[in-house]
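hey so i finaly got around to running the thing on MATE family efflux transporter from Suilimivivens aceti. pasting the sequence first so u can double check i didnt mess up the copy paste, my clipboard has been acting weird all day
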Amino acid sequence: MKTAVNNNNGLMTEGSIFQKILFFSIPLILGNLLQQLYNTADSVMVGNFVGSNALAAVGASSSMIYLLIAFSQGAAVGAGVIVAQYLGAGDKKSVSDAVHTSLVIAGILGIVLTIAGIVLSRQLLEWMKTPEEVMEQAVTYFRLYSAGMFFGIVYNMAAGILNAAGNSKRSLLYLAVASFTNIILDILFIAILDMGVAGAAIATDISQAVSCILSMAFLMRVKDSYQVSLKKLKIHRRIAGSMIRVGLPTGIQNMVISLSNVLVQTSVNGFGAAAMAGYTAYLKVDGFNILPVMSFSMAVTTFAGQNYGAGNYDRVKKGMYVTLAMGFVYTVLTGALLLTFDDQIMGMFSRDAEVITCGKLAMKYFCPFYFILSILHGLSGALRGVGKSIPPMVVLLLSLCVFRIFWIWLVLPHFSTIEGVYLLYPVSWALGAVMIIIYACTAKWLPAGRQQGKVR
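ok and heres what it spat out for the 3d tokens, dont ask me to read them lol
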């Protein structure tokens, strides 16, 4: 019988639940915010030094880029859950096999998606009805960004491994270095060398390569069960099957939700370049709310996975409640702050009054309702951590994809302004939150009490 590794190794199977989740979440939140900061820096530099059309071009490309990488993010979630469960059970051999399998999968996905992004960029943007005045810049950004996609995908997998092992501080450190690199390169390439959207994409590629190299270098030298050896890189079929079982639903979910976001972006494109630029600018601000929510979700996934692997079932449920409370408090506070300083925030991205108005309008529809999104993702994260990845997938697909598609087809034609697009978001969040609450309250997704045993 395997026993849990003690929590000095970064595990969360003992000690204060609030402190474990909070201290694990903080590096994740700061890391995600740093990543969002350098993405925002791209938009701020492009909007101020290149113009509104260039800012719209970055936005048009970004939604399709997220669609391409969405499946790889699901794969990283699946790998992280499996690694966390084996760590909780103290199964060092399986931890090592899971780590090496996940990195091989990430490498394959990285190569395939890099090629797809470069080859299909123009066709995909045409399908999105990207306006002619921003098309060429959008294609340029898309192709150059795709050239560095491999590094981003491998980094995400490496970060997932570090997070599963409770070493989220490393992810924060490497993202801090990448963010600083990106901001410096943005200034050099855009403000000084006048390279436009090409400079923004190249700066992002280089910064992602830096974080990828640093994280892999650490994994290759760390003295623990999740150490990486190039000689051991191979796909273990049993482990890969477990990762697919957990990660495939999340990957499909991410892809389909990203597809719905592409359709939303297509709807925004119909309102012209100024609306596209305002929407793009706000989405960068939006990340400072959503990414911490996703960090809490990732934290409770790891917490639930480790404690489920150790048989601490009561602790899993308590961790879920703590995560929901943390997400609620954070989103209410930040939503209020964003609304209070909306003029100043949107003014950072553009001097165009129409662009600023579109961005501020998005704030009014998004900011008061982020707490609903925190409930949806907090419960989903806990369920994934115990291996129940299909129910969250179904809920998120129905609410954030199917419902949105029907809204675009049936409701949006009755709106003559962009408010119809913005209203879609809080309504779909609320639908998803109600569905996931009903499942969590009625389904038997967790055994009662405590039972030491093997990972299921």
